[in-house]
Amino acid sequence: MEKTIRSDLEIAQSAILQPIKSIAASIGLTEDDYDPYGKYKAKLSDGLKERLETRADGKLVLVTAINPTPAGEGKSTVTVGLGQALHRTGRKTMICLREPSLGPTMGMKGGACGGGYSQVLPMEDINLHFTGDMHAITTAHNTISALLDNHLHQGNELGIDPRRITWKRVLDLNDRSLRHVTIGLGGPAHSVPRQDGFDITVASEIMAVLCLADSLEDLEARISRIVVAETYAKTKVTVADLKAAGAATLLLKEAFRPNLVQTLEGAPALIHGGPFANIAHGCNSLVATRTALKLSDIVVTEAGFGADLGAEKFFNIKSRQGLHPDAVVVVATIRALKMHGGVPKNALEEENLTALTSGLALLEKHIESMELFGVPAVVALNRFASDSADERRTVAEWCDARSVRFAESDVFAQGGAGGEALVDQVIDALEEESTFRPLYPLDMSLKQKIERIATLIYGATGVHFEDKALRELERCEESGWGGLPICMAKTPFSLTDDPTKFGRAEGFMITVREVRPAIGAGFIVALTGNVLTMPGLPKEPAANRMGVLPDGKAIGLF
Fold first, then answer.
1. Which residues contact 73 (CB under 8 A, 6 or more apart)?
2. Does the bond joining 535 to the residue before it have cis omega, within 30 degrees of 0?
3. Residue 3 belongs to what H/E stretch?
4. 38 band by pLDDT with thresholds 50, 70 and 90
5. What radius of gyration, in Å, describes the C-alpha atoms of the chain?
6. Final residue of a domain: which of 235, 252, 269?
7. Whose CA is closest to 263, among 126, 418, 119, 123?
8. CB-based contacts of 502: which residues, under 8 Å, 6+ apart?
9. Structural domain boundaries, residue 281
10. What CATH number corresponds to the domain at position 323?
11. pTM: predicted TM-score of the whole model, two decimal places
């Protein structure tokens, strides 16, 4: 009973952590391979990548999920729990996660360290300032902003049109009041007045660039290519034109190094980078994943939100950087399936086999989508105390009837021990040869790529492109960017671009209202619906319940 009533924070604070040097030694690292950040965190050294180059890669397991609901899915918890379960069965395993953003941590979603007895530690540090990566990304981004406005102030040699500046400032908090601001007021000494705004740090292209670069040289080259504005003659202005790439890279040199931590059961984990999956590509850094593949036999990683966003982008964007996914785990809960089947949140505790069966149509769509990529799949049913035996049996029999690998996961309550059935299914999937292939070739037109994602992954009947989006697509093609992959910006809560439409929707169109080139990151962003790049806080933010005790322990984090 004790395990079911203790909060995530209480569990984390009562854990006995191993010194980070012990975790490093367990994966074959020497003291030259990392720099400790206190007793329980470390940054991997710059030269480690080269030292590991000749090693063979381990197997790569991606954890994704059905579309999230307020009922909770526990994708990060399953990722950590599966890693712990593999670790406790004697397999050399590492976990790769994204870093939490202070926006959702202080807002509604909470942190991103897993939950219950499947967490990464030190949870308080990771969910707050960690090793300073988010602050470095924020500062690098805003340095470019400052240099851009200084260029305007100092005579505007490049002929930048202040009305066509696309580079906003960023802040790693949810602050809706900063979405649209006016800057440069106060007279000639205070720069050129213009309209500006703030995005959340995890929506910054700097974040995407850091997570897709494979070296410091590549990082600087990518930053140099970022488009920040247009001139009066409508030519593109890049960070290289502002001579800002070197300074931004310098500010990121420590943040570019992956962070080594541990789970509650002492399994090694790399936590690095944190782009959102509804407005960016939603994966931890390429350098962290590649390093983990060299240091272990199995790497368990996750992609943000549901398979229609995170997994699609992992396969179509990140995996093109030389990664070969070997298996995918699709997480579902009975609570969320019932919600997608029409049950309101306040009635999810009640058994409802009709709604559950209806919600399973959404799970089926995600399984079909994963099959398009040629990666063996496993369904993980994340257990909740309110699940009835008949409901659990219904999901198991549904999967069995479709020859879908299935296992219940109880890693929240039992840690790695609750994931051993899932391990059996994942190992079985890993023994099947992955025939991974992206959803579309890069030589397909940008418009066709968007249509392919919308029809095959979302199940839409087609795509409506607003006139502005069509003009931007044409300009991207004319600029030579037609060979880049697509990064869809869409609500995570629905297969459609309407967050209120739950379940497996049919007969709908996707509307693309705007297209933005992210040339440093190496993809084209297609914006649908009303996706915001600076979220707001809920009526009762999680921050209102947070504090610190006299002994320095945090309260209210989750």
1. 65, 66, 331, 332, 333, 336, 382
2. no
3. helix 2-5
4. very high
5. 23
6. 252
7. 119
8. 67, 69, 339, 340, 342, 362, 493, 494
9. 2-131+255-431
10. 3.40.50.300
11. 0.95
